[in-house]
Amino acid sequence: MSHYPESVQILIDRFATFPGIGKKTAQRLALHVLMAKSEEATQFAKAIMDVKAHIVFCSVCGSITEEDPCHICMDPKRIQDVICIVENPADIFTFERTNNFRGRYHVLGGVLSPLDGVGPEDLNIDKLLNRVSEGMEVVLATNPSVEGDTTSLYLSRLLKEKNVKVSRLARGLPVGSDLEYTDIATLTRALEGRTEL
Amino acid sequence: MSHYPESVQILIDRFATFPGIGKKTAQRLALHVLMAKSEEATQFAKAIMDVKAHIVFCSVCGSITEEDPCHICMDPKRIQDVICIVENPADIFTFERTNNFRGRYHVLGGVLSPLDGVGPEDLNIDKLLNRVSEGMEVVLATNPSVEGDTTSLYLSRLLKEKNVKVSRLARGLPVGSDLEYTDIATLTRALEGRTEL
Question: Between A and B, how many residue pairs show a Cβ–Cβ distance under 8 A?
């Protein structure tokens, strides 16, 4: 059996370590690099190194930023006493696109997952507890998964001890969806959380 | 609206230029690089540069290789007078996995596609015509698409002028498929090309 040249195989293997990238896609991506102009490949490699060189984690909220603290934590127009807790930095950018949240964020860096060996000490929880004080509001915005819900429950207990108002994102029908194709769990939550008109 | 830090956005944009990678996947890949260990990112960037530095195109067949000519063209055990014509280097590695073809290859580097401005002069055809001589066999293994078929037809005319035996890959039912779900075009070809038992 013939193999790809070694340097190509190494690049394929690197691509295959990415989330959601299988062997076939990794091959396609590696061959795309191979067929690209040299300067494009150089710029791609440079972009990778630049990201690692320039990006740090915000010492306040744990998000990714080029300047510490990040511009959201430094923004005086942001409401000080509302903190939205998310799993990953990417979630912040999703929230920001709604243009509807004027508080600040806190990045956990994951969720509690005993099966994967992730416990409370692996998450960015200590800093969160130092940030909150009596009278603040914390919005729990972990993913609506078993791990996300478990993590939110764990945090809500810790936060309530500090007399913080704790809320979490509403569960219900996604906008534009079709009732007929909605799963039972979502519909149950939508019924439980029905709002008066 | 808040944006990703500039260096992250640049990397996202780079990933988004890859075939089959949309905006969301590009974000996911870029954030994976960001979260990876520094040494992993360095090795990834190095793998990209290595590929561009070490890989050349075989001067005989046009495949990708670290040594020119490539090891298939240099292999004395390979049948000299059978050449399989493929669109891209990746197709060679797919053929080699069958362990069933003992001839050599020739890479076109694409297919004729007037709409995309790709004409015969853009393909690796001159070298092919120099390689073939009377009595040889050429297997046309372009993709079973409109462009692939057009390219094969074009080549077969040129090659027949050189008294070369020209064949192309069989069209028919893929192994393991289900007749009920086979498209009409494939079934028509399978019927036309039926073989006696």
Answer: 143
Question: Using a CB-CB distance cutoff of 8 angstroms, which residues of chain A are in contact with residue B61?
Answer: none
The shortest CB-CB distance from A44 to any of B48, B64, B72 is to B48
**Model pLDDT for residues B118-152, shown as the tens digit of each residue:** 999 999 999 999 999 999 999 999 999 999 999 99
pTM across the whole model: 0.79
DSSP state of A125: T
- Residue ranges and CATH numbers for the domains of chain A are 6-42 (1.10.8.420), 78-168 (3.40.1360.10)
Residue type, B135: G
Ordered strands of the A137-140 beta sheet: A104-107, A82-86, A137-140, A165-168
Q: What is the ipTM of this complex?
A: 0.80
DSSP-derived 3-state class of residue A136: coil
Contact A51 B44 (CB under 8 A): no
